[in-house]
Automatic annotation (TrEMBL):
This is Acyl-CoA reductase. It comes from Labilibaculum antarcticum. One of its GO terms (biological process) is bioluminescence. Keywords: NADP. Signal peptide: none annotated. InterPro entries: Ald_DH/histidinol_DH (IPR016161), CoA_reduct_LuxC (IPR008670). Transmembrane segments: none annotated. Pfam families: LuxC.
Amino acid sequence: MNKSERIQAFVELGNFLSQFSSEDAKRNDHRLNSAYYDDFEALLDRVSNENLWFTPLHVHASINGICTFLEEQKLNDWLNKYSIPDQNTQLKVAIIMAGNIPMVGFHDMLSVLISGHSFIGKLSSKDNQLLNFVSKLLIEINSEFKELISFQSERLSGENKFDAIIATGSNNSARYFEAYFKKYNHIIRRNRNSVAVLSGNETNEELEALGRDVFLYFGLGCRNVSKLYIPKGYNLVHLLDCWKNYSFVNNHNKYANNYDYQRSMFLMNRIEHLDTGFVLLNENTQITSPIGVVNYEYYSEINQLENNLNKNSELIQCIVGNEIQNSIPFGKAQEPELWDYADNVDTMEFLTQLKSK
């Protein structure tokens, strides 16, 4: 399978998945529909029932994000800066995936396969069905993928005979990964969160869009905003008024349980906070915040804040706002491009520089 055939396969995959990119997406006449449409639709329902964090809204949002990747022009623009082999390599790359949001490991899977390598996936127990189904779709689109895609149910070890590994996990698991896979070419990812920098000049529309960056996936993603930096005198009440349309998150039992617990802890420990009835705002220097809580911190000088953010760059996935260079627009934190790499590590550069032993 050459580079062009790989690209075309993923474009066709995107066309199929686009039928599920929202709850009101329309069925088209894709050639895979007769064999796979009903099964995939049933799988989406089953996944939402088995992992209650994966609500239909969030599963469709994740699929929509993937579909924006799988456009032919975007794929070509992304790959043109790399030396992609025109034939499949003999290299095998293992991927240990997180399970915090639906199909969070898709970009790694795409990167491995489109660079010509064989993919060995270790799925999270929290998200162990969707990418397996996606692999069946790819194999149906191009049967050569059958020799290039495999999934490992047991713990990955040297006996799996792979050439490189990409692992995503908590800070604790990352220390284990670093030690266990040190002899392999590797990328090890750790906990990260995203932040927003506000000036006080944002429009109501921008502040409402920021709510999407905070609440989509219930704040479980590394691109979710968990911390706000605000100027002294900032009107937090106005901000919270702009988030009122996200109050539906508290209808979700698991989210509500986390919110109620954090609220009880604040009250019991007499910690000052703002409470909307569905999210708590807490003045705190920590970037990471619990589910149901958004931390905030005042700043006085934007240059000083930027220096502080640079010093903590290893803890930050992305910055939302208009004030800091290379920030992401409000509402776009969960819409990364193909070249917006996790932990700012160029996955494709890593993959295209791998050599056979």
